[in-house]
Amino acid sequence: MQKILDEIAANALKATDLGKVADYIPELAKVDPKQFAISIATADGGLFSAGDCDTPFSIQSISKVFVLALALGKVGDALWKRVGREPSGLSFDSVLLLERENGVPRNPFINAGALVTTDTFLNCSTPREALGALLRFVRAASDRDDIHIDESVAHSELDTAHRNFALAHYLASHRNLTNTPEHVLGTYCHQCAIEMTTVQLALAGRILLDAEGLPSLLSHQRKRRINALMMTCGHYDGSGDFAFEVGLPGKSGVGGGILVIAPGRASIAVWSPGLNAYGNSKRGTEAMAELARKTGWSVFG
Ligand code: GLN
Q1: Among 249, 246, 241, 252, CA closest to 275
Q2: Does 157 sit in the ligand 1 pocket, CB within 6 Å?
Q3: CB–CB of 134/128 below 8 Å?
Q4: Does ligand 1 lie within 6 Å of residue 238's CB atom?
Q5: In degrees rounded to 5, what are phi and psi of residue 177?
Q6: Model confidence at 68: pLDDT above 80
Q7: Distance from CA of residue 75 to its chain's centroid?
């Protein structure tokens, strides 16, 4: 495994096209695109890494997986009255379908759907309480205490979150938001600004693995369902391509991270800040395709 990761990191460093770092969140535009890291936490307790695996990065939309798990823990299947489970075929911040489909977002991983899950998780608590519970959950999942929120990234996003505010107000106009758009957006921008290393993220992802002896924070059925949503919706309008090239469920973030699950085998985190046209990590996607080829891991046999 270590040899495979070293090869993947070496190949990533040879790439000439690094993709484009997200710049609509000003703080993210400052990140050095040359960085690359990959970590694998295996179901039998192994931990392997290569590259900048101790450098924390902004997990952004990968946080939507953890908040979805917590929202389902709060309200169970009632969540599906407020958000769908279909791929959108559109970019992560699109407003198009929300109007056509009467304020019920297509899935919990596009921004509109994630605002509904954040709203559900927030419930009647304050943003501070909800964020505290989220951090406790992620720290317990990874068994690492040094996981924090980067306030400068959170505020940088909040100051420029015009589209996400538009989505939140649209949801509110359809009575699909119970907290104020300000509270939901404040919580959402802070959850996205959680910083983790690939080591921490790979360890946290083990909650989605079914394997003996791992921390069991989610039921078997919930893991399967979250993995199914990651497979079909985790890369937005690039989800089909990712399934085709990699064949494993994954969730990307505009910070350049991707969390991938090889069910029963391993949780994998890869990070490279430059993005492809879909807003998913370019070298991260390529690295995952290489890993899938070299290990033979795929949910399709
Ligand atoms: N915080 C980002 C946003 O809402 C998350 C998007 C992403 O990572 N794809 O725009």
Answers
A1: 252
A2: yes
A3: no
A4: no
A5: -145, 130
A6: yes
A7: 21
Which residues, in sequence order, are CB contacts of 4 under 8 Å at separation 6+?
A: 291, 294, 295
Check whether 214 has a pLDDT greater than 80: no
Whole-angstrom distance, CA of residue 78 vs CA of residue 200: 31
Q: What is the CATH number of domain 2-58+196-295?
A: 3.40.710.10
Cα–Cα distance between 21 and 57 in angstroms, integer? 13
So what's the pLDDT on residue 156? 97
Average pLDDT estimate for 118-138: 96
Every domain of the chain and the residues it spans:
2-58+196-295, 61-194
CA gap 263, 165 in Å, rounded: 36
Q: Which residues are catalytic?
A: 61, 64, 188, 236, 254
Tally of residues, the chain: 301
Domains 2-58+196-295 and 61-194 share a fold: yes
User: Can you tell me which atom of ligand 1 is nearest the CA of 60?
Assistant: 8
Architecture of domain 61-194: 3-Layer(aba) Sandwich (3.40)
54 and 34 Cβ atoms separated by less than 8 Å: no
Which amino acid appears at position 243 of this protein?
A
Say if residues 209 and 267 touch (Cβ distance below 8 Å): yes
